[in-house]
Amino acid sequence: MSKTLVIAEISGGRLKKTTLSAVAFARQAGQPFDILALGHDLGAAVEALRGYGAGAVKVCDHPGLKDYVGEHYTPTAAQVASAGGYSVVVCTASSFGKDLAPRVAARLGAGLASDISGVVRDGATLRYRRPMYAGNALGTMEVTTPVQAVTVRQAEFEAAAPSGGSSPTEAVAFAPSALAGRVEFLGFDEVKSERPELTEAGIVVSGGRSLKSSENFKNVLEPLVDALGAAMGASRAAVDAGYVPNDLQVGQTGKVVAPKLYFAVGISGAIQHLAGMKNSKTIVAINKDGEAPIFQVADYGLVADLFKAVPELTQAVLQARREQN
Amino acid sequence: MKILVPLKRTADPDNANKVKVSPDGSRVTTDGMEPKLNPFDEYAVEAALRLTENGKVRIAGDSLTVCTFAPKEASQTLRQALAMGADNALLYVTDDAQLDGDLVARALAKVVGDTKPDLVLLGKQAVDGDSNQVGQLLAEYLQWPSATFAMSLDLAQDKKTLVVGREVDGGVVRLRLTLPAVVTVDLRIVGPRAVTNHVTPASFTYGDTARFAPLPAIIKAKTKPLAEAPLASLGVDLGLKSRYTAYALPAARKAGVKVKDVQELVQRLRTEAKVL
Ligand SMILES: Cc1cc2nc3c(=O)[nH]c(=O)nc-3n(C[C@H](O)[C@H](O)[C@H](O)COP(=O)(O)OP(=O)(O)OC[C@H]3O[C@@H](n4cnc5c(N)ncnc54)[C@H](O)[C@@H]3O)c2cc1C
Ligand SMILES: Nc1ncnc2c1ncn2[C@@H]1O[C@H](COP(=O)(O)O)[C@@H](O)[C@H]1O
Question: Which of A296, B61, B267, B269 has the fewest Cβ atoms nearer than 10 Å?
Answer without folding.
Answer: B61
